[in-house]
Amino acid sequence: MIADTLAKFLEFMTAHYVLSGTFLILVVLLVMQQSRNAGRNLSTRELTAMVNRDEAFILDIRPKKDFITGHIVGSVNISNDQLATRMGELQKHKDKTIIVVCASGVNAGGACSELKKAGFTAARLSGGITGWRSENLPVVK
């Protein structure tokens, strides 16, 4: 069954190589554009260094109930669905990089894009709070 599907797929790719190549190029360009708009990924070490140098502000975009169960020291919670309406609260941090933290690092990219459109410098924590906890780094409740 899978071998049949793969054979048909390969047959299509070879018969329509221009169409397939164009599609592949478009996918790669889309991924590159989204990656560029979503802000750079920071490791936990980079986040800590930036905070220690007072160059960063940590924004946790998880829902309030998740934030309460444990978050990075000094982080502020504005859930992802409230970000657009509460963007004004971040103006006082415009001179710093806003580091966006979500559960796993997946949702932070969209928030970074919104922040960049509003004129902020934004980055995201690679792996989110899950990655932070997996390195046994402290959280507060």
Low-confidence parts lasting 5 or more residues at pLDDT below 50? none
**General shape:** elongated
Across the major sheet, the strand order is 1-5-4-2-3
Mean of residue pLDDT?
88
Number of helices: 7
Number of structural domains: 2
User: β content, as a range?
Assistant: 5-15%
User: What is the string of helix and strand elements?
Assistant: HHEHEHEHEHEH
Q: What proportion of the residues is helical, as a percent range? A: 40-55%
Annotation, overall tally of beta strands: 5
Kindly identify the CATH topology of the largest domain: Oxidized Rhodanese, domain 1
Please give the radius of gyration in angstroms.
Answer: 20 Å
CATH superfamily of the largest domain: Rhodanese-like domain
Instruction: Give the CATH level 1 class of the largest domain.
Output: Alpha Beta
What structural class results from the helix and strand content? alpha/beta
> What is the CATH architecture term of the largest domain?
3-Layer(aba) Sandwich
The biggest sheet amounts to: 5 strands, parallel
> Termini, distance in Å?
51 Å
Layout of secondary structure:
Layout: H1 2-15, H2 17-37, E1 40-42, H3 44-52, E2 56-60, H4 64-68, E3 76-77, H5 83-86, E4 97-101, H6 108-117, E5 121-125, H7 128-134
Structure description:
It is a single chain. With 141 residues, the protein is α/β, with parallel strands linked by helices. The protein has two domains: 2-35; 40-134, 3-Layer(aba) Sandwich (Oxidized Rhodanese, domain 1), CATH 3.40.250.10. It is built from seven helices and five strands, in the order ααβαβαβαβαβα. It has helices at residues 2-15, 17-37, 44-52, 64-68, 83-86, 108-117, 128-134; strands at 40-42, 56-60, 76-77, 97-101, 121-125. The protein has a five-stranded parallel beta sheet, with helices on both faces. The longest helix has 21 residues, at 17-37. It starts with a helix and ends in a 7-residue tail after the last helix. The mean pLDDT is 88.
